[in-house]
Amino acid sequence: MKEVINEIGKDSAFYDESGGGITISGGEPLMQIDFLNALLDECKKKSIHIAVDTSGYAPRSAIEKIKDKVDLFLYDIKMIDDKKHRKYTGASNKQILENFKILAKNGSDVFVRFPVVPGINDDESNVIRTAEFILAHGIKSICLLPYHRTGIEKYRSLGKGYRLRAIATPSDQKLSLIKKQLEAFGLSVRIGG
């Protein structure tokens, strides 16, 4: 922990000047909740802005432990339909959506990111249900993250098969269509980031 805090501290002048801070990502940072919680405590002591990049796939207790310590949650929502979520990710999305509701009810700053994967979650039904879900919980903006193929090499280096090898990056036209669909609900939509 001390090494991480020392490394973060090296950029404290930059944080002060820019109004920035740190983003904790992973894997899934919530799977290392004790370390994450201790890191958040140390950063709070130094008044460092903290963003946590998460899929929300974690026990409720993890969200409860950190919800008031994080300045911004970068929260990925891939699919609303649990059956499809299980098919493509291997896990239920029930806890993901419940954790999202906890953060929204808490008044946490949540920035929704929607990874657009052609042929998997870019259908109109999922887009509409995603818009309805986040709006029902007071979130007014969303970021579309176009699927990219950069993970192929990482999987290869780990000796694992990459199941989405045949999926292409979504076209600009498809991203524009999804953006328009979401904007029709009154959402502020950004592509990329």
What would you note in describing this structure?
By secondary structure, this protein is of the alpha/beta class. It has a domain at 112-193: pyruvate-formate lyase- activating enzyme (Alpha-Beta Horseshoe). Helices cover 46% and strands 17% of the residues. A six-stranded parallel sheet has the order 1-2-3-4-5-6. Strand 1, helix 3 and strand 2 (49-54) form a beta-alpha-beta unit. The protein is globular and about 45 Å long.
CATH superfamily heading of one domain: pyruvate-formate lyase- activating enzyme
| Alpha-beta classification | alpha/beta
From the N-terminal CA to the C-terminal CA, the straight-line distance is 29 Å
What's the CATH architecture of one domain? Alpha-Beta Horseshoe
Q: Order of strands side by side in the largest beta sheet?
A: 1-2-3-4-5-6
Proportion of beta-strand residues: 15-25%
Under CATH at level 1, the class of one domain stands as Alpha Beta
Helix content: 40-55%
Low-confidence stretches: none
**Could you report the average pLDDT, rounded to the nearest whole number?**
91
Secondary structure elements and pairings:
Elements: H1 2-9, H2 12-18, E1 21-24, H3 33-45, E2 49-54, H4 60-66, E3 72-76, H5 82-89, H6 94-106, E4 110-116, H7 124-136, E5 141-146, H8 151-157, H9 172-183, E6 188-191
Parallel strand pairs: 1-2, 2-3, 3-4, 4-5, 5-6
